[in-house]
């Protein structure tokens, strides 16, 4: 990965249209890398739809390079003290440049700000 790409990646909060793209890339990449199919697609779409209905219960960050989404991460509150890490994905060509650490730092800072005492991560089961 050239260092210019690293410098040109920006991180912002989610905006309209991002959720659909996040779901699309999760499904394409997880199918290619892990062989997950239609039930995984439903799992991702369902969780994003629930987040959109109750945005006050969390936040999504998106990493962009030249206007293209290259990574994402989300935190969703599951109760007053517990958060869940969601939709963490880095495009393969952007792995290994520290982008995952940057997104994770945003998520951890948000959890501290919201005073969550615990953060779990969901596991898709086949």
Describe the structure in your own words.
- The model has no long low-confidence stretch (mean pLDDT about 90).
- The protein starts with a helix and ends in a 5-residue tail after the last strand.
- It has helices at about 5-10, 20-35, 40-55, 100-115, and strands at about 10-15, 60-65, 70-75, 80-90, 120.
- The protein is built from 4 helices and 5 strands, in the order αβααβββαβ.
- The protein has a single domain, classed as Gcn5-related N-acetyltransferase (GNAT) (Aminopeptidase).
- The longest helix is centred in the first third of the chain and has 17 residues, at about 20-35.
- By secondary structure, the protein is of the alpha+beta class.
Short description:
With 126 residues, the chain is α+β, with helices and mostly antiparallel strands. Helix content is 43%, strand content 29%.
């Amino acid at each position: 990965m050239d260092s210019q790409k690293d410098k040109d990646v920006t991180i912002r909060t989610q905006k309209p249209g991002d959720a659909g793209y996040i779901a699309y890339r999760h499904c394409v990449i997880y199918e290619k890398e892990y062989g997950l199919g239609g039930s995984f697609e439903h799992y991702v779409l369902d969780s994003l739809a629930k987040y959109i209905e109750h945005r006050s219960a969390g936040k999504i960050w998106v990493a962009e390079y030249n206007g293209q989404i290259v990574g994402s991460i989300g935190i969703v509150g599951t109760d007053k003290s517990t958060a869940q890490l969601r939709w963490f994905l880095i495009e393969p060509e952007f792995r290994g440049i520290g982008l995952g650490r940057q997104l994770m730092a945003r998520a951890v800072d948000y959890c501290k700000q919201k005073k969550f005492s615990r953060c779990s991560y969901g596991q898709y089961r086949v």
